[in-house]
């Protein structure tokens, strides 16, 4: 039980330290290398045409967007 409490306190201190750092710097969390955008890649796959699964997802997103737009109150 003592090991659990020590581990919990250490994790709590780490989270508290990160929170204080965020509050002081007002800076969002970001990766160290900037991701794929930093090397000029706009998307994970540079295929000229999206795969079938991606096309289905895009169609579902478009249908949802149209439905929300048609049923919008304001």
Mean pLDDT: 82
Number of strands: 0
Q: Report strand %.
A: under 5%
Low-confidence stretches: none
Figure out the total of helices. Answer: 2
**Straight-line N-to-C gap:** 56 Å
Order of secondary-structure elements: HH
Judged by helices, strands and strand pairing, the structural class is mainly alpha
Q: What's the Cα radius of gyration?
A: 22 Å
**What oligomeric state is this?**
single chain
Assign an overall shape. Answer: elongated
Largest sheet: none
Report helical residue fraction.
Answer: 55-70%
Would you mind describing this structure in some detail?
The chain is an all-alpha fold. It has two helices and no strands. The protein is elongated and about 55 Å long.
Outline the secondary-structure elements.
Layout: H1 2-25, H2 52-70
Defining key terms:
single chain; 74 residues; 2 helices; mainly alpha
Concise structural overview:
The chain is mainly alpha-helical and 74 residues long. It has helices at 2-25, 52-70.
């Amino acid at each position: 039980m003592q090991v659990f409490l020590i581990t919990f306190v250490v994790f709590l201190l780490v989270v508290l330290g990160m929170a204080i750092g965020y509050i002081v710097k007002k800076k969002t969390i970001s990766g160290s290398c900037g991701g794929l955008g930093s090397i000029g890649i706009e998307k994970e796959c540079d295929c000229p045409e999206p795969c079938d699964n991606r096309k289905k997802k895009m169609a579902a997103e478009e249908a949802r967007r149209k439905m929300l737009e048609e049923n919008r109150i304001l």
